[in-house]
Structures are given as C-alpha cells and as structure tokens.
Amino acid sequence: MSGPRIVVIGGGAAGLMAAGRAAERGARVILVEKNQTLGAKLLLSGKGRCNLTSAEEDLETFLSAYGSKGKFLYSAFSRFGPARTLEFFASRGLRTKVERGKRVFPEKGGSERVINCLIGYIRQGGVTVYRNREALNLEIRDGRAVRFILRGQEVEGDAFIVCTGGKSFPKTGSTGDGYRFAKRAGHEVIQPVPALCPVRLKEKWPQSARGLNLKNVSLTLLKDGIVVSRRFGELLLTHFGISGPIAMDMSRDIGEACTSGNATLILDLKPALTMDVLTARIERDLKKYAGKMFRDCLKDLLPRDLIPAVVEKATIPPDKRGEYISPEEKRELACLLKEFPLTPEGLLGFDWSIVTSGGVDLREIDPGTMRSKIVENLYFAGEILDIDGPTGGYNLQMCWSTGYAAGDSAASSACLES
Ligand SMILES: Cc1cc2nc3c(=O)[nH]c(=O)nc-3n(C[C@H](O)[C@H](O)[C@H](O)COP(=O)(O)OP(=O)(O)OC[C@H]3O[C@@H](n4cnc5c(N)ncnc54)[C@H](O)[C@@H]3O)c2cc1C
Question: What does the alpha-carbon distance between residue 281 and residue 286 come to, in Å, rounded to a whole number?
C-alpha cells in the first residue's frame, strides 16, 4: 500500500470513525489506544444500550441543542449527519429503533454491537491497531506535526488526528491527555469542566426514595432568586442527590450557580396541575381517606416510595387524620408538591460526568475538515473539542460527524501532499 500515513490517537467513538474513514479513503492508518480494548466508554454509553444518535430530522433544531457552538458543526453534519450515521450502521447490519425523546438505540443488543460495527469498519480498511500504547507527546517541527512519542515507541505520519476524548469517566482511559498535545501545538484549551453530571444535594432523600425515577416532573434552577433554567422530564433520586436526564441536562448551569451565587432548585411534582386543581385534588383524596392518617392519604397522588420524603417536609403531622387537615394545610401541601425546595451543593465531578464541557478552542479549528488552523497536518475530533450537547444521542453524533470529517480530510489532504 502506498497511501499517506495517518496516525489516530484514541480508539473511542471519534477515533474509530476517523480511522475507518481515512482507511476507506486509501490511507495507511495506525490507531493508537492506551487501553487493551477499543471503545471502553462506548461500551458504557446509554447504560450499555448506546443511544447512538437522535432521530431529530431538522438540522437547525438538531444543531441548536449544542447551544451557540452548534453552528460549528454545520458543515460536518451536512456531510455526515444523523441520517448518514444511521445508513452507515444499517449497512453494517445494525438495525435501530427510536424511543422516547427521539433517542435512537440498536434494536437488539447494545453498545457492543455498535463497537463491533466500528471494529468491522477499521478492519475492512486494514487499520493497524496499537493497543495498550499510551501517546505521551507530540513532536512538531516547522509548523508540522512530525511524530507522536508513545510509551516505548515512536510513530511518524503524514497527518495526525487526536481523538483522546475529555476528562469524564477517567477509568475508561479519557484522562485529558489530548489537551496537553493541543497546547503543545499552540492551541488554546478552554477550561474543561464536568457536564451532564449528577448533582449533590444538601438534603438527603429518605431510604425509600433512593433509586426512584420520577417521570413527568419539572425542575427549576434559581440563582439568587432569579430563574436560570427549567427542564421537564425524568429525574432520578439518589443517595447523594439527583441524577437522570433533567438533572444532567441542567448540571452545567447548576454547577455554575453553585460556585457563583446562592443556588436553589424547585421540584414541581405535579407540573400538569395548577395550584387550584391540585388543591381540589388533595381535598378529594383527604375526603376519600378520611379516618386515615395523613401519611396514608397520599397514595393516589404520589408514588408510594416518595411519600416519606413529602411527609418529612410537610408541616402537617404524619399521624394527623385526614378529616382534621385544615384548608391552609391543604394549600400548603399543594404548594409543597408544586415547589419542593432542594439545595444543590455542587456536581459529583469528572468521575461521574457523562461529558466534558470545554476543550480545544473551536476558533482554531476549521469546521469543514477538523484541521488545526495552527499546525497544518493536525486534526481534532470528538469530545476533545470545546463542544458538548444534552443527553439524547447528541454527544455521540458529534463524535461520528467530526470523526468522519477529520478522517476524510486528513486522508485526502495528506494524499495531495505526499
Ligand atoms: C456513562 C456514560 C454514558 C454515555 N451515554 C451516552 C449515550 O447514550 N449517548 C451519547 O450520545 N453519549 C453518551 N455518552 C457520551 C459519549 O459516550 C462520549 O461523548 C463519547 O464516547 C466520546 O467519544 P470520544 O471518541 O471523543 O472520546 P472517548 O470515548 O473518551 O475515547 C477516547 C479514547 O482515547 C484513549 N486515549 C486517551 N488518552 C490517550 C493517550 N494518551 N494515548 C492513547 N490513547 C488515549 C482513551 O483510552 C479512549 O479510549 C456517555 C458517556 C458516559 C461516560
């Protein structure tokens, strides 16, 4: 083989896609991975089921999920967006299904099947994989990347693609090494912080509530009394606080609010009901269960395991009988269910965050090719870039699209140069 030689550092979602695409374009590709296995983080994704993309069809809406940085992805998504991603996996025998919130999962099996498709892709292209090989340093001469120093070895190439991920879940191998390589190449690295991260609360949930998944609730974040963000959906109560989609999606704002002000969370357990409707509903239930103690009157209104948490916070004594509960107490209870107060203390940190926010400054990366604007034969793809999305398949889609763009461009431009 005589194609250009491309070195890809990191065998996660972005690195596997980049390596496979570069090889498909005729490059000789070496993929360097510090773990023994490829795709360690992919294996954990979507609780092992891998929510590989979103079925959102409108490109503008899809990109708006990444916030103001979404426009950076326009070109990469136009070339290899969600539809092409699904075609790619389907052509490798992976059938998918769409679940709630337009989340796309493999129809059968889970993450392992996604990884197998990608391993099939790199094998088909004859990619050489160096496993258990950690990249330590990047050598740059006269504005060009020349070689990567690996533990016990060096590897030269015509172009280099860095796909080392962020700093989240470091036990999967993503320990932020790529930021060092980027800085060495002269890139600005925006301070990496945990995102999509569980939240620690001051309050402790009673034992029964821990592990409870609340559906159709709404969570509002206030900073110094002013609403910062609000989400509706699923919330998981845990021994340390809260997790699940809405807590994760709000975690960046929560983390920021905790460090810079007085942060409060308001949990609405009955967002579909107005205060008046809820008060009337409480009244009806108390009538129905007259003669029973307050704590036993709530079983139609709330999940059984959540009742102790509400009773604990309510001003009504738990053993007060339904018929003796006053109109003020009923109103107060309705208020508690609509505005259950929680005090966030901070995020659980990189060990538990699904993604990393921050990374290689996008202003220094060409959005069409993922090529560095500083070092001409250096590329970045995946979570190492300063862009992240909400839960729902957005983060993996960003990896597929940027990985594909980097592999494609590195192979074609290195080909022209060699
Ligand atoms: C628990 C969990 C669940 C998730 N679920 C979903 C989901 O369902 N849907 C979704 O869209 N996103 C999900 N994500 C996020 C998504 O998995 C990541 O955004 C994505 O995997 C990042 O891919 P990447 O290729 O950029 O980096 P990574 O997957 O982190 O891969 C980087 C690779 O580089 C290797 N590496 C690092 N440094 C070096 C070095 N110096 N030398 C050699 N190799 C190195 C690492 O070992 C690693 O294998 C989840 C994340 C977690 C943690």
Answer: 9
The answer to whether the CB of 17 is under 6 A from ligand 1 is: no
Quote the CA–CA distance of 71 and 23 in Å, as a whole number.
28
Q: What are phi and psi of 379, to 5 degrees?
A: -130, 155
Q: Relative to the CA of 397, which ligand 1 atom is closest? A: 11
Decide: 392 in ligand 1 pocket, CB within 6 A.
no
Structure tokens at 134: 């950690």
Task: Measure the CA angle with vertex 161, ends 158 and 163; round to 5°.
Answer: 160
Q: Name the pairing type of β-strands 159-162 and 378-380.
A: parallel
409-418 pLDDT per residue, tens: 999 986 666 5
Residue 33 in contact with ligand 1 by CB distance below 6 A: yes
Closest of 204, 143, 189 to residue 377, by C-alpha: 143
Residue with tokens 């340093």: 137
Query: Do the Cβ atoms of 178 and 10 come closer than 8 Å?
Result: yes
2 Cβ neighbours under 8 A, 6+ residues apart: none
* CATH number, domain 5-193+355-417, options 3.50.50.60, 3.40.50.1820, 3.40.50.2300, 3.90.1200.10: 3.50.50.60
Give per-residue pLDDT as tens, 126-144: 999 999 999 999 999 999 9
- Sheet containing strand 340-342, strands side by side: 340-342, 263-268, 213-223, 226-237, 241-243, 199-201, 344-347
Given a contact cutoff of 8 angstroms between Cβ atoms, the answer to whether 269 and 212 are in contact is: no
* Closest listed residue to residue 358, CA positions, set 324, 382, 326, 385: 385
Q: Is residue 165 in contact with ligand 1, taking CB distance under 6 Å?
A: yes
Domain regions of the chain by residue span: 5-193+355-417, 198-348
pLDDT category of residue 290 using cuts at 50, 70 and 90: confident
- Full DSSP string of 219-283: EEEEETTEEEEEEEEEEEE-SSEEESHHHHHHHHHHHHHHHHS-EEEEEES-TTS-HHHHHHHHH
Alpha carbon separation from 153 to 139, 147, 269 (Å, rounded): 13, 10, 57
- What is the reported pTM? 0.91
